[in-house]
């Protein structure tokens, strides 16, 4: 089997140029198998014949005369594993104690905002940029988020419109560090030229105030004293303490270059923390955590904790504990404990090491109840910071090229939240360890008519046609492919901007995607084994960018949610388009719409914004029909049922609501669910539902999935109570039909497919499941730092 399937994708653009042909890739290894939703498929164990031996599988159709378990039926499942998605590493995080939100910056410039109070849901997303290498994040004045990076600019993010408000050049070269004052009214940045710059935060922007005394080398870390009178700045080989009022350095503390008895050439202070008692805690490339007296500028205590760099530090708000991350993938927890049981004197003690990362820990954060760590960009070792003779200049500044140590660590891309059990009052799902690897937004769309999958990457799209088989077998069998999956198209974007969203029409004739500044629409034509692609030119100015794109079921309309809060309806006909209408946001509000859902008849459009509200529009009459009652948790997925026009909404707290659009009220089933409540194991799941769909011939069925389970909810069956086995809804097959019906409940769950990035019905008997095993991702990452093992 080959990825191209013996076919070459050919695009005939208006100018006659050839399309971007798919690059050589490994075979999809698509293997089909049979699958049926019954007792043995809900245990989470995968049958031997169905285990992942390739890139995809089709789990198959029911034999004639074989009864489906509890009426759930069986499906042929295309099991796809050729979505070669690798998440970007985490570069820095910033925790906001007021709103309990976490901002995360990745190595491709992407910034994500997680709502920790909403089951750690990724509620906001800002796409990356090739020229934007974010080195620092911080919150100021409550809900204002700032970032700075190696392009020398400070940026503020609009958390409502989901775009960048503005960018200000600090005129100090690349920015390595940033910190907001305790009051949130001032911003400090540490620059490449050794300068520390102070900015005043105004209601609309930031304004430069003054420079502090310039140092001899770059400022890699910053920390404010809680009183706001002094700051600590970490550099190469020393730590400076500044008086904020005068801007002068009052102390310069030289760090020890000794590492395992050997003097290192440089010692890089990766992080500093300034405590209210005047203690400065530093972490450096010599593997040390050191405590300094800022009043005298002397070293108080030193801990050697790693054989590699200690790269990050974060202190609890109460200053009774702090956490550090190392290049060996270990996170260490330090706590302030009494020297003796009856003593009032306290000391810092290393209490707990955690090894939740395979690669280096580039950043950490400390919330009141949890330790947060992120695997990030490969660390610069102490042999770095050498100027290359081939350096080039950009806008009058020198671009510095760095070299890496031979044993450089990579990135495992995980965001890990480890709860502090002594801080968690209720032992519920908040007390569980979480690893967030995949985005909480969809990267895959499907053309059901042509059985195509469109995969979204940061800078290109891939179009695949699913394979097929004519073989038959019994339930659970793996069947050979008679026709391999075809890689039809590799569509690369132009420019440095990342793709925000993309979609393929149900008929497979249209592809649309958007970056921050441009919107693209393509018309596809299929001729035997060839495909041609023509871009629709002269897009209207109001379609410069989109946050969400969706086609109608008949592929005649395109719905576009802009970052200004407007919803555009575009009529598609042949190879042209016509703008029909724009639903404008309410007066005085600019709320970005993050999710869209359209009814199968094309009459209703539902849109969910950043405030967790859902608006339903009448597409025929071009007006707002109703607004779903507000709920405290954000929407993670929604869809409109084809027969009833009921809107099914999933929220981040795992609640599922059904709202009747024609009647403008919740359905009886939804009211029954809220009265009885969901099973406690259902509510304790830690990954959000990302997709909802419906069976065309079974109106009582709701199909949904998260990253680790696929579920069919049968509304005609009773809900399970907490005493019922949620993941084992059927008794043994030798039981009578009466017993089986009496013990069956509404939830039929399969945990075979995971991590599950996408699952949907292609037709009434066929499913497609796209998996991305973590082992496949780790195999593509750079190697971790080398460790000395006994006997080697």
Describe what this molecule looks like in 3D.
Helices cover 3% and strands 43% of the residues. Among the domains are: 90-382 and 391-436, 7 Propeller (Methylamine Dehydrogenase, Chain H), CATH 2.130.10; 441-598, 7 Propeller (Methylamine Dehydrogenase, Chain H). Mean pLDDT is 82; it is low at 1-72 and 377-410. Strands 1, 2, 3, 60 and 61 form a five-stranded mixed sheet that branches. A four-stranded antiparallel sheet has the order 4-5-6-7, with no helix packed on it. It has a four-stranded antiparallel sheet with strand order 8-9-10-11, with no helix packed on it. The protein is mainly beta.
At a glance:
With 792 residues, this protein is mostly beta strands. Among the domains are: 90-382 and 391-436, 7 Propeller (Methylamine Dehydrogenase, Chain H), CATH 2.130.10; 441-598, Methylamine Dehydrogenase, Chain H, CATH 2.130.10. Strand 54 (656-660) and strand 55 (665-666) form a beta hairpin.
């Amino acid at each position: 089997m080959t990825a191209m399937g013996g076919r070459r994708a050919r695009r005939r653009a208006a100018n006659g140029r050839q399309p971007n042909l798919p690059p050589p890739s490994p075979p999809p290894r698509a293997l089909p198998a049979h699958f049926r939703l019954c007792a043995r498929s809900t245990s989470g164990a995968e049958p031997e014949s169905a285990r992942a031996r390739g890139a995809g599988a089709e789990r198959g159709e029911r034999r004639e005369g074989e009864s489906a378990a509890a009426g759930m039926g069986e499906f042929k499942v295309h099991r796809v594993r050729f979505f070669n998605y690798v998440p970007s590493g985490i570069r820095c995080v910033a925790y906001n104690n007021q709103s309990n939100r976490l901002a995360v910056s990745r190595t491709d410039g992407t910034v994500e905002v997680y709502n920790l109070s909403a089951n750690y849901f990724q509620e906001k997303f800002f796409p990356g940029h090739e020229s934007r290498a974010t080195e620092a994040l911080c919150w100021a004045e409550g809900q204002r988020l700032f970032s700075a990076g190696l392009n020398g600019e400070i940026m503020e993010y609009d958390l409502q419109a989901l775009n960048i408000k503005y960018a200000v050049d600090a005129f100090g070269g690349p920015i390595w560090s940033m910190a907001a004052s305790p009051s949130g009214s001032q911003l400090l940045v540490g620059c490449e030229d050794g300068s520390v710059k102070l900015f005043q935060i105004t209601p609309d922007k930031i304004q430069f105030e003054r420079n502090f005394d310039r140092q001899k080398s770059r400022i890699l870390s910053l920390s404010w004293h809680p009183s706001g009178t002094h700051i600590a700045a970490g550099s190469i080989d020393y730590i400076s303490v500044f008086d904020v009022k005068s801007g002068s350095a009052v102390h310069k503390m030289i760090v020890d270059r000794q590492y395992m008895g050997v003097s290192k050439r440089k010692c890089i202070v990766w992080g500093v923390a300034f405590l209210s008692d005047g203690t400065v805690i530093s972490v450096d490339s010599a593997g040390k955590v050191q405590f300094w007296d800022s009043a005298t500028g002397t070293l108080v205590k030193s801990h050697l904790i790693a054989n590699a760099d200690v790269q990050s530090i974060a202190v609890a708000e109460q200053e009774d504990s702090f956490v550090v991350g190392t290049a060996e993938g270990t996170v260490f927890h330090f706590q302030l404990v009494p020297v003796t049981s009856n003593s009032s004197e306290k000391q810092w003690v290393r209490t707990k090491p955690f090894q939740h990362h395979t690669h280096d820990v580039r950043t950490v954060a400390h919330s009141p109840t949890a330790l947060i760590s992120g695997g990030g960009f490969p660390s610069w070792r102490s042999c770095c910071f050498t100027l290359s003779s081939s350096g080039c200049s950009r806008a009058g500044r020198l671009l510095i090229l760095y070299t890496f140590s031979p044993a450089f660590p990579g990135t495992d891309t995980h965001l890990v939240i480890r709860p502090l059990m002594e801080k968690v009052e209720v032992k519920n799902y908040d007390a569980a360890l979480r690893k967030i690897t995949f985005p909480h937004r969809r990267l895959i769309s499907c053309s059901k008519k042509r059985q195509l999958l469109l995969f979204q990457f940061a800078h290109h799209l891939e179009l695949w046609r699913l394979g097929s088989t004519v073989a038959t077998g019994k339930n659970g069998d793996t069947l050979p492919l008679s026709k391999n999956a075809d890689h039809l198209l590799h569509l690369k974007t132009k420019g440095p901007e990342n793709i925000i969203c993309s979609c393929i029409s149900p008929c497979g004739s249209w592809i649309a995607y958007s970056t921050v500044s441009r919107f693209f629409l393509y018309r596809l034509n299929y001729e035997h084994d060839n495909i041609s692609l023509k871009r629709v030119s002269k897009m209207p100015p109001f379609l410069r960018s989109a946050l969400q794109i969706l086609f109608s079921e008949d592929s005649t309309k395109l719905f576009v949610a802009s970052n200004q809060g407007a919803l555009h309806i575009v009529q598609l006909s042949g190879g042209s388009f016509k703008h029909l209408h724009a639903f404008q946001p309410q007066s005085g509000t600019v709320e970005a719409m993050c999710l869209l859902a359209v009814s199968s008849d094309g009459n209703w459009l539902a849109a969910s914004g950043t405030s967790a509200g859902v608006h339903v529009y009448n597409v025929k009459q071009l007006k707002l029909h109703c607004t779903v009652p507000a709920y405290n948790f954000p929407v993670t997925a929604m869809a409109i049922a084809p027969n009833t026009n009921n809107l099914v909404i999933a929220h981040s707290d795992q609640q599922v609501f059904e709202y009747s659009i024609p009647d403008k009220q919740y359905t009886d089933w939804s009211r029954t669910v809220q009265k009885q409540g969901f099973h406690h194991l259902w509510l304790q799941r830690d990954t959000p539902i990302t997709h909802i769909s419906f069976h065309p011939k079974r109106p009582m069925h709701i199909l949904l999935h998260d990253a680790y389970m696929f579920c069919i909810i049968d509304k005609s069956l009773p809900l399970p109570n907490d005493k019922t086995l949620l993941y084992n809804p059927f008794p043994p097959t030798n039981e009578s039909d009466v017993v089986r019906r009496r013990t069956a409940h509404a939830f039929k769950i399969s945990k075979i497919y995971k991590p599950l990035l996408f699952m949907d019905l292609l037709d009434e008997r066929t499913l497609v499941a796209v998996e991305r095993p973590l082992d496949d991702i780790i195999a593509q990452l750079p190697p971790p730092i080398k460790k000395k093992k006994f006997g080697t």
